[in-house]
Specification:
Layout: E1 2-7, E2 13-26, E3 30-31, E4 52-53, E5 55-61, E6 67-73, H1 74-87, E7 105-106, H2 109-118, E8 126-127
The protein binds zinc ion.
Zinc ion binds next to helix 1.
């Protein structure tokens, strides 16, 4: 079971209590929080980017046992991936590149439209190397 309670960038409240949530599809595009991620179950700060799917479609059951499907993007999408990972025993820092904590593989919107135009099937990755001091 996971619980999410947060506001997205538009001030919309996302309040979910979900049982057996499963990601049934996700975007090719990735995203990450520039501030990195934190966790109430981790009593220390772990620096580094945590690559996530930009958008996810999740199937789950609500408290009444009714099946629900959610399509999420932005912060709620990141949060639900973080929470579903917990159910699988995966912590956010497991996704951080050990050698380059601030490296991410980003497929941007621009690249997505390029890909459609050229019909390329192989997505290119953009690697960004940033120091933590660049972030604030
Ligand atoms: Zn957590």
């Amino acid at each position: 079971m996971i619980a999410i309670y947060l506001e997205d960038d538009n001030g919309k409240l996302h309040e979910y209590m979900l049982f057996n949530p499963k990601i049934i599809s996700h975007s090719v595009e990735n995203t990450y929080l520039e501030s990195g991620e934190g966790c109430l179950s981790v009593d220390r700060e772990v620096s580094g980017f945590v690559p996530r799917h930009a958008r996810v479609k999740v199937k789950a059951f609500d408290i009444d046992g009714k099946e629900v499907t959610l399509k999420l993007k932005g912060l709620p999408s990141i949060a639900i991936q973080h929470e579903i990972d917990h159910l699988d025993g995966i912590m956010f820092y497991d996704h951080i590149d050990k050698e380059n904590p601030f490296k991410v593989c980003l497929i941007t919107q621009h690249e997505m439209s390029d890909r459609k135009n050229t019909g390329l099937l192989i997505a290119r990755c953009f690697f960004r190397f940033l120091k933590k001091s660049d972030l604030f």
